[in-house]
Amino acid sequence: MKVILVSSGAVAFGKKEIQLPEKLNPVLKKQIWASSGQIELIQTYKLLFREQRIQVAQILVTKEDFRDRKHFLNMKNCIQGLVSQDVIPIINENDTVAITELMFTDNDELASLTAAMVNADSLILLTNVNGIYTGAPEETESLLIKHVGQETKDLSAFITASKSSFGRGGMLTKLNMSKKSADLGIQVFIANGKKLNTLENIFYNRGEYTYFEPNKSKQSTKKWLAHGDKYYVAEIVINEGARTALFNQKISSLLPIGIVALEGEFKKGDILSIKDESGNRIGLGRAEYTSTAAKEKMGLKNQKPIIHYNYLYVFHND
Known about the structure:
The protein is α/β, with parallel strands linked by helices and about 325 residues long. It has helices at about 10-15, 25-50, 65, 70-85, 105-115, 170-185, 200-205, 220-225, 240-245, 290-295; strands spanning about 5, 55-60, 85-95, 120-125, 145-150, 185-190, 210, 235-240, 260-265, 270-275, 280-285, 310-315. The longest helix is centred in the first third of the chain and has 25 residues, at about 25-50.
């Protein structure tokens, strides 16, 4: 078994170490706490794993590392290299350089992205309750939802809006990331990290947690694109004929003849959002050439695809 750990906690450690003036800029305060606390965080993990004779390594990332394909592949190679040498990568957001619009919702999003990146077969999201309930977990009438299949109805109505002291997300993020990961072919568990033997119980199929049944696995490039809904740099509007072709069972790339409008500038390799003429977002893809070239080819026959099928992810097209 190969393990990758995604962990927050740097800011919390930093707050314990350094007292800062109340009037100091909030972003700067977080950067100071994160840069100091990250040392304490990784040192704590290093000591804990040393007791088991396990080596660890630190990887700090931002959303830009997932947006750029070259950065993405470099990061993937590094993580897989560490794992191949039985070193556990400990991954955290680089809060010292991240700005608000480029921050992950929380580490559940980062964990989901990482799982997709390395083609993981399992993703475990630990929280302070046993999983997703039919109501507020503290209410006696609320029941734990133990199994979520591909056909399970939307569970977001069951989620209460609660946040931890240092987190930006909550159970709703865990639900959304779990559904997306399961759709990509990764089995997901939401479990209570404060209970003893939680990971062991999951391994042996016992205990209480919410399990998300995986769909058929998608190829790695499509897993990268599946999370691009927050990283795309421009949008393409396509006509009904192109829309029908993309949702057809026959493999199809997106050709310039089907494009009716371009919104924004992009370069080759950028992630693009695909919309139909009604404004519905239907997919994501990697640009095969620039927006300047795309404008010249738009609506023309016998042109190279603007998005090749291998780099195309269509929503709910399984």
